[in-house]
Amino acid sequence: MSNSKAFGEAAIDNGAASLQANIKTSAWKDFMALIKIGIVNSNLITTFTGLWLALHFSGQSFLNNLDIVFFTVAGSSLIIAGSCAINNYVDRDIDHLMERTKERPTVTGKVVPIKVLVLGILLIGLGTLSLFFTTLTATVIGLLGVFSYVFLYTLWSKRQLVSNTIIGSISGAVPPLIGWAAVDANLDIMAWSLFVLMFVWQPPHFYALAMRRVKEYKAAGIPMLPVVKGFKTTKIHIILWVAALQPIPFFLTKLGIPFLILAIVLNIGWLALGIYGYRIKDDIKWAKLMFVYSLQYLTIIFVAMVIVTLI
């Protein structure tokens, strides 16, 4: 009997421990969903690249500026995470209508909405404080990014204007500027070229996504371009935005001929894929190809910027 009791108690303890572990895992996943960790990570790449290039072209050592690196990476990540949390708070009334957002904690009721708002404000505050340890310019740019995402995009244009994607692209283009400004407050033309690159990259990326999710955006009442203007017009806009990318590499010639060639090839490849896509009768398939290419494009081109400065 004593052995049976011991085994029983052990089973209960193990079950309780497993339940606790699951709760902790679930809470962590919910937190990651609230701050949109995918967006935080992708923006971290562009922030770091801006920081790295500023150090490189100003002749400063990376290892001698680890404090700046830390405060820049932490600060930019925190303000982006906070802005995304507030976006989740605001959009909780429509997220249940979309497949990719219906499982967010703000929709399922796993978290109290007001706590999400407080979390967002707290993260933005901590991020701003971190950036303040770099330069005032980086801090101001970071706050402008928060303002453009939370107020200009989330609270104003997202549900009212077809141009919401373009307006939202402002905040998405800010991270490399933050990274550069954290090292060099006198923003070089290359810093602004990174901003323009990110700004122009976003419409074709998100328009392709919107084509794939058009029914969901329509159900949520969000006036995305494919919802309002249809696929034919959206495809033309995507091609025009990709075409606008073509001259940007020529403002990044300081990175050398190998990078210039790579960037030109990537740009032409994206444009060629888009034009070729007109032969594909399946618009959704075309949109998927363009979306996947846009993801690979962004990763390759920003990682390449770092690599060519190491060679």
How does this model look, in words?
The chain is mainly α and 311 residues long. About 5% of the residues have low confidence.
Helix/strand/pairing class, anyone? mainly alpha
Please give the radius of gyration in angstroms: 22 Å
Shape: flat
Low-confidence stretches: 10-23
Helical fraction equals over 70%
H/I helix tally: 13
Q: How large a portion of the residues is in β-strands, by DSSP E?
A: under 5%
Could you outline the blueprint of secondary structure elements for this entry?
Elements: H1 2-34, H2 37-57, H3 66-90, H4 105-108, H5 113-132, H6 136-157, H7 164-173, H8 175-183, H9 189-212, H10 214-220, H11 225-245, H12 257-276, H13 283-310
Helix pairs in contact: 2-3, 2-8, 2-13, 3-5, 3-6, 3-8, 5-6, 6-7, 6-8, 7-9, 8-9, 9-11, 9-13, 11-12, 12-13
